[in-house]
Every structure is written in structure tokens, then in C-alpha cells.
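Board work, copied verbatim: DUF177 domain-containing protein
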Amino acid sequence: MNPLRAYDIHIVGLDNKRYEYDFTSDTSFFVAMDQELIKAGNVETHLILEKSETMIRLDFHIVGMVEQTCDRSLDEYDEPVDTEQTMLLKFGDHNEELSDEIELIERSTTTINVARYIFEFISLSLPMKRLHPRFRDEDDDDDDQNGKVIYRSGDEEANNDADDQSAIDPRWAALRKLSDN
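↓ predict structure ↓
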């Protein structure tokens, strides 16, 4: 049986009100997604589905840990995941993704599968730079040293302006005289 079938929600018989669902995603979920970004993990998803005449609002709260490989040391580590995201599914006459948060679905749709949304939200919550926690303090220290601002007095700026004017091409100086008249 396909492990992603557990993420199907039958919407055809739902009344226009609020429903709550809980999903547990483990390593089999990430393997079934057929991707290379996340190989293993254990994540709990609490989904609030609000159905109305014109749309379905999906509010996801995803908490857990996913296994990542450090870009620097290639060591595996657990990256915490804690994200809240919203997805709107509007009823229409065809299927179309309008934006990252809004999709059109056909009115005749009987079932929606939320596995893709859960995986996308987990992926988006992960840092782009995958660093083992033992390297993060070092990386923060490097950022602090590179981020220092050097302040100069006003006299140095006046000297720089004089140097800039002396370095102006004489052709531009002639044109500047014309514009000053």
C-alpha cells in the first residue's frame, strides 16, 4: 500500500465547517516522496481544514525533527522543524497553482492529498545552509567579525572628495564648467 494514501482527505461529503486532522510522518513518508533533500525524520502535523462554499482553507502546524547532512563535515544531524503555514484551495473549473499559497481545484474533486503540502512546508522551514549544530557558533562568530562597521571622521571624507575631484577626467571637467554657467 502506498504510504501517502494516509494523507488523503475526502472532501466530497464534508459540510461547510471546521475539521481537524493529525498526521505522523516518519522515514517511510520521506522515502515515498521520492526526493533527495530529506532522507529520514519524524514529524507531527496538526491540520485545521475549514471548508466553505467557495474554498478550503488548510492551516498546518508542523513540529518534529528531520535528518540532515552537514554541508561542512558531511555528518548527519537532526534539524528541528516547527512551522505554521496556510494553504488556500479555491474551487474552480480547472486545476491551477495561482501562487505559493493559493491553488484552484475542480469542483468535482473528491479527495485532496496533503502529503505534498506537508513536505513542501517542511522543506521551506529548513535552513539553506545545512550546518551541524557544533559549527553554528563558529559561523555566528565569523559573521560578527565580518559585519563590523568602520567609522570615519568628517575630515577624511573631505580629503576623499578632493582626491575624487583631482581624479576627474579633464574632458568631464570641461563639460562640468559648461553646466555651471
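The helical segments are 27-32, 115-125, 133-146, 154-166, 170-180.
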